[in-house]
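Now for a typical sample entry:
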Amino acid sequence: MSSTYVLGINAYHGDVSAALLKDGALVAAVEEERFRRIKHWAGFPSLSIQRCLEIAGIRGADVAHVAISRDPKANLLKKGMYALTKRPDLSAILDRVKNARKVRDLHTPLAAALGVSPAAGPSIHFVEHHPAHLASAFFVSPFDDASVCAIDGFGDFVSTSFAAGRGNRLEVLDKVYFPHSLGMLYTAVTQYLGFTGYGDEFKVMGLAPYGEPAHVAELSRLVRLTGDGMFELELEYFRHWNGGVEMEWDEGYPTLGRVYSPALETLLGPARQPSDPLTKRHEDIARSLQAVYEESAFHILNGLYERTGNPRLCLAGGCAMNSVANGKIRANTPFTDLYIQPAAGDNGTALGAAYYLWHQVLGQPRSFVMEHAYWGTAYEGVDVAAAIGARQDPEWHYQATDYAGEDAVCRATAELIADGNVVGWYQGRMEWAARALGNRSILADPRRVEMRDLINTKIKFREKFRPFAPSILEEALDDYFEDAAPDPFMQQVYPVRSARRAELPAITHVDGSGRLQTVSERTNPRYYRLIRAFAQLTGVPVVLNTSFNENEPIVDTPEQALDCFFRTRMDAIVIGNTIVQRHPVAAEAIADG
């Protein structure tokens, strides 16, 4: 009996992606940005589709079904009523019509990506954006039944959805429709604070702990919390609902015009320009935004629990990437168990569309749980020595050493980290979603207070306020973090125990917290053995982990990893069982003399 392949895609949106299932089991999940080398790539995920086919070892003709996480026909009545009553800017309507037409007419680019003729292509299924989010969370979770929630900016005219999941079925209980959106609330204030890039909300989350909640009263005016976990925005502070906000989802970097109105500047004072310095006022506004967001999110989740009574929660949507709020859910709601898969944002809707089709539409039973994020590309047989030998660099000499086996290379890498070196760690299959989780990571010693500033200024070339994450052996979690739950996907922030903060200064944020990743031998044995080797050397079962990139998407190929190593000030890179170290030419010349 032949296998059934289902391809899920997120297309003509930001963070386009593809995921491939074989008889209900995930085979591959990748994002277009990794191959285009432009963050948040929008448009059509043609390269992602091709990589999924390559990973599975199949042809496009073998794919039986394609599910796209958009449905232009969804919520038409709500859209029509809104257009009649609110009379939005004509350009905004035309932009959305143009985008919807691309979604409906995807047969040609899909056929090209699959390498088939449009007439011979697979069945195409349109899955509404929010059900795709819900499916991405519940259908790959370890729960047989759960409360399910998606919170984001917008998708198919919806910003928040409440659902109950049981077995292979999702029941949508309620929705919050355009123009009301917690995601839009966070984006508006993010732009006001001078962070205008697509997806810059995470920067504000990192800035918030430096401030005080001095502007909660003002920012609370932007949102009204109503019964049953619902809410409404105070629209005078926003322009996305009637101002014709510019959006660009064609091939390339996605853009979003200004979504806040002049009323926000009347309320808070002049907006910060991107080139302006960050002041205490900006830090306080960021902290206040996070506080207002958390109050609103917990209001939504408490309302969901009142509807379901189920203490298990699956969470998705762009707002589910707010790891600070996620770490407080169990303390501020009745939920006792939480699952957030690594691609909770729009990239994950490709995964959700595929699983929604497999379970909700085709009626297939559940058989898969996502326990790790290593669903991307891998490259074998890399000749690292040849790449090093071809490098002409008057300032540095590069030494490549091959190690016999995993234990040896992990021990040698742990020694480098313990000696204060910053190490690029390139192993196995690339991670799915935004977090580097031990296969495409830059690693350092969390005990060294100088590491944070050194990596930010000499390797990542980014804002100094940005924190770094700890990767910790799963069994050591309670020794280092307070009231924390295991999380292999780095989606939750918890307090570092006060007695351990001086021990881990490089990964402890200014408020005493850390966005942790628990590492188990079952799901990533090589990364686990590296951290265990570091613990045997130092007594600390934690390493500093940040993504292997430098103002670009996380590296995909070994060549990209080496290029990043060469152009930054990393001290070493580990590719498979080969370690390459950097040595100053001048120092070697002196030693030889």
